[in-house]
Amino acid sequence: xxxxxxxxxxxxxxxxxxYDVVIVGAGPAGLSAAIRLKQLDPETSVVVLEKGSxxxxxxxxxxxxxxxxxxxxxxxxxxxxxxxxxxxxEDRFLMLGEGGSVRIPNIAMPPxxxxxxxxxxxxxxVCRWMAEQAEALGVEIFPGMACSExxxxxxxxxxxxxxxxxGKNPDGTPGPGYEPGMELLGKYVFLGEGVRGSLSKQAxxxxxxxxxxxxxxxxxxxxxxxxxDPAKHHEGRVEHTMGWPxxxxxxxGSFIYHLDNNQVYVGFVVxxxxxxxxxxxxxxxQRFKHHPVVAELLKGGKRVAYGARAITEGGWQSLPKTxxxxxxxxxxxxxxxxxxxxxxxxxxxLSGIHAAEAAHEAIRAGRSGDVLEGYDAAVREGAIGKDLKxxxxxKPLWSRWGLTASMVLGGFDMWTNTLGFSLMGTMGxxxxxAEATEPAKDHKEIVYPKPDxxxxxDRLTNxxxxxxxxxxxxxxxxxxxxxxxxxQKNLPVYAEPAQRYCPAGVYEVVEKEDGPEFVINFQNxxxxxxxxIKDPSQNIVWTVPQGGDGPxxxxx
Length: 556
What we know:
The structure is a single chain. The chain is an alpha+beta fold. Among the domains are: about 15-80 and about 125-215 and about 320-390, FAD/NAD(P)-binding domain; about 460-540, Alpha-Beta Plaits (2-Layer Sandwich), CATH 3.30.70.20. It has helices spanning about 30-40, 70-75, 125-135, 200-205, 280-290, 290-300, 345-365, 375-380, 385-390, 395-420, 435, 460-465, 485-495, 500, 530-535, and strands at about 15-25, 45-50, 65, 85, 90-95, 100-105, 120, 140-145, 145-150, 160-165, 165-170, 175-180, 180-190, 220-225, 235-245, 250-260, 265-270, 300-310, 325, 325-330, 480, 505-510, 515-520, 540. Helix 1 (about 30-40) runs parallel beside helix 3. The longest helix is centred in the last third of the chain and has 25 residues, at about 395-420. It is globular, with a radius of gyration of 23 Å. Keywords: 4Fe-4S, Electron transport, FAD, Flavoprotein, Iron, Iron-sulfur, Metal-binding, Oxidoreductase, Transport, Ubiquinone.
């Protein structure tokens, strides 16, 4: 046994393993980095740690994949049997009103919105396949290994992570079957945790990586997989809608992607910068499915899966510095989603490639633990930066002036950026999503229709279709900085919005004889991170539960 670098007198002694590169997260970014490292030097030791029960279990994305990242990483992916077999055949953009719709001509859309050459995929299945390619190259991949702590080097750098801690009692003390976990130490540590990762948050704060950047912005993406009537299925069709039911209440929109086997992905995104604390994103999604256009498509079908995940939406002006002493932020851990395209997987893959190449060069030169400045430059000056920069004003335009202005002015700005310039410069986002929440007294409560159990469903029923499970004897992974805030502040001022913004019914305000009580049903958590983002008091901190817990998405 070796004494852990991060250990104090009160912390357990842990075994340690050393690698050249430690990667947190087996998503498209982390797996791309692992593959590229092995391509560059098969002798490089690489480990990938994944908190899901298996690779892909916690992956949720639309998803229409732009294959540019995969083309660069594995040019022969078609011949290699990648689960990417449904090319986009048709693009449709609809503006919805309560009772009808208007189709926006494709010719009016900026060229970057064209999905020609892209594919409808399950990113969970794509990641499972990528993991097979990585393992064939010699990458060690450990699923069910949640990374609960950063190991800080004596010089202040990120030296590794603690993974695989199990068996704590609800109060946080070691239980009878306690396993302290291991320290995975690396010359470099890549954080590819996805949106609002718990370790990424610590690195961004500790190294002040967001200095001089705009606040990060987010959306909540909810998704169901439906099996529909074959007569209504159009394999390869991609539909995006805007307008009803959100209209003036919040920004956002929907996607309906027709993949193979008579299945469709039905998704809904709500921008989390909304003002009204009475808004319920999940109910907006359920109401959307009752629109005549959507209801007719789903009639006679059945929902087979559900999930939810936050989406980074800040884009270019919110992108933090991506390299820090001892490591790097990959993909959505930094925020690389192109908002109008609703695409980030291609940039995640490219970021993994860039990080791998920078680390390979550093290790070959005998360096370790320093700042990979070449990686940050590659992100900002290369294809990722160009992709994000040309759509940088769409989100702030939408936040400031609403849907119509964002369509007209945002579309114009994207057209001009296609030509290499912008008349608007770079607009700011202003408030964070938490700060955007206004007091309940300034808004009216929104009355939502009850779910019919056919097209729309209550939250807990849908959570049962996510495969979510958490061992109940462990500590709650949703931490309150101050346990008094939900009832003493958030309830009187904001009508405690946690009971409404959570798409999994985790939070409740329960009336007891001695007054209201804030209840956290952490077993329901689908790891979307919305609470960590939207809580107006920023009192909720999302941390990892023990490894393997959470949703078990089959093919999201």
